[in-house]
Q: What sequence folds into this?
């Protein structure tokens, strides 16, 4: 049994004040009795304040990036130890970092290793460009990204892989459930090769790219997809709460709806 994850990547959005306000709204709708794992990933500067604001909830905190060195003369960077002091989860290898900040497979690989040494749970992001998708190279690109990101890493059950086709991110053009499910199955086959069947069967695979409360069910209903990494729609409390609720009822249909909400 894989516990589903609904994770919000807030990207470079929200001031500290806005971040605290958003958490206040999320607390009103996300019950600690839910079995779905809920993660929010605000910008670095809000992490400490959001950690405080999340107290008493089961919502986990994640960061969006880290440097691979533990400390040193790297002006403007944030180390795995600093992140691990505040967070449980770390997003690594997001396509926006690969695209705009020159992150290569080798750098992503070093960051995964550093995150694991610091005790963080990585959400490793992979996904193909539009031209690769159109040329039928999705499997090839995803395989290469997965192998280079995890080279020399002892692949373990706590790893989370987010499949985020670049053409679906922020475009309003989400992929479709069936092809994403096929890619997720491919990802799990590669993870099996890199570890073993039992470990690969435990790893959660998420879909990301224009996920909203309106289309999330199409992904959550697929057998190989274990949740979503949500960008834009995670900044709207009603959208995010609805996505968590839908995940709860799709994955745990026998759980009675609960009113055990966390007071603010
Ligand atoms: P959007 O949901 O805004 O398309 O972003 C997806 C994403 O990049 C999450 O990491």
A:
């Amino acid at each position: 049994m894989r516990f589903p994850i609904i994770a919000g990547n807030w990207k470079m959005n929200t001031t500290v004040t806005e971040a605290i306000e958003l958490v206040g709204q999320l607390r009103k709708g996300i019950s600690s009795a839910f079995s779905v794992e809920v993660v929010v990933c605000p910008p670095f500067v809000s992490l400490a304040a959001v950690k405080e604001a999340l107290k008493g909830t089961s919502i986990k905190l994640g960061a969006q990036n880290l440097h691979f060195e533990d400390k040193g003369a790297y002006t403007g960077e944030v180390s795995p130890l600093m992140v691990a002091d505040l967070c449980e989860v770390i997003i690594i290898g997001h396509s926006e970092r690969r695209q705009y900040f020159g992150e290569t497979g080798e750098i992503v690989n070093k960051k995964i290793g550093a995150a694991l040494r610091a005790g963080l749970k990585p959400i490793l992001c992979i996904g193909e460009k539009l031209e690769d998708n159109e040329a039928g190279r999705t499997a090839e690109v995803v395989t290469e990204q997965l192998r280079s990101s995890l080279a020399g890493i002892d692949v373990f059950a706590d790893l989370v892989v987010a499949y985020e086709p670049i053409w679906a991110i922020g475009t309003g053009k989400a992929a479709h459930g069936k092809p994403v499910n096929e890619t997720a199955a491919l990802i799990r086959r590669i993870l099996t090769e890199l570890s073993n069947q039992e470990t690969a069967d435990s790893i959660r695979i998420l879909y990301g790219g224009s996920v909203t409360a309106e289309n999330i069910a199409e992904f959550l209903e697929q057998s190989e997809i274990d949740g979503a990494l949500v960008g834009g729609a995670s900044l709207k409390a009603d959208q995010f709460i609805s996505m968590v609720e839908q995940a709860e009822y799709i994955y745990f249909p026998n759980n009675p709806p609960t009113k055990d909400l966390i007071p603010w």
About this structure: The first helix runs from residue 16 to 27. The longest strand covers residues 121-126. Strands lie at 5-9, 37-41, 60-63, 89-92, 121-126, 160-163, 204-208, 227-230.
